[in-house]
Design a protein that fits this description.
Elements: H1 7-19, E1 28-29, H2 30-35, E2 40-42, E3 48-50, H3 53-60, H4 65-70, E4 72-73, E5 75-79, E6 86-89, H5 92-102, E7 110-111, E8 114-118, H6 119-128, E9 133-137
Parallel strand pairs: 5-9
Antiparallel strand pairs: 1-4, 2-3, 6-8, 7-8
């Protein structure tokens, strides 16, 4: 048995930790974020994760009061090496609200705990939803 990891294992572990270092560890509700003067959460690495107020307001217009209280942001958009041309959202409330905001209609149904999106759409949504969506690499 080895007492210490091989250099390659250490490097891979360090790289993996850095890929998702900016992930928010404690999400906040849409309501709570809208009440803050400078809406933000804290990322795993200690940096602030800022939200665009206009995006929060646009999302809020498509939520009921209960949904605004229960919707935790940022909503994670998962990118996996197992999926060649798609990504997914596993938060059912986040997916439902995004569906209404974007007017997806019956496209991209939430099935088996996930709403799959084309990869290009996922990237586009992250760039347009400034802080409200966060990419997670698996």
């Amino acid at each position: 048995m080895r007492d210490r990891p091989e250099p390659m294992e250490k490097w891979v572990e360090r790289e993996y930790a850095s890929i998702n270092a900016g992930l928010v560890t404690k999400k906040k509700s849409l309501d709570a974020l809208r009440d803050e003067p400078a809406p933000a959460c804290k990322a795993r690495d200690g940096t602030p994760w800022a939200f665009d107020r206009d995006v929060l307001d646009r999302v809020a217009t498509h939520c009921s009061a209960a949904e605004a209280r229960d919707l935790l942001l940022p909503v994670a958009v998962h990118f996996s090496t197992d999926l060649m041309d798609s990504c997914y959202i596993s938060d059912s409330l986040g997916a439902a609200v995004l569906r209404r905001v974007e007017g997806f209609g019956p496209a991209f149904p939430f099935r088996e705990g996930k709403m799959y999106l084309p990869l290009s759409l996922g990237i586009d949504l992250i760039s347009r939803y400034k802080g409200a969506l966060q990419q997670v690499f698996l």
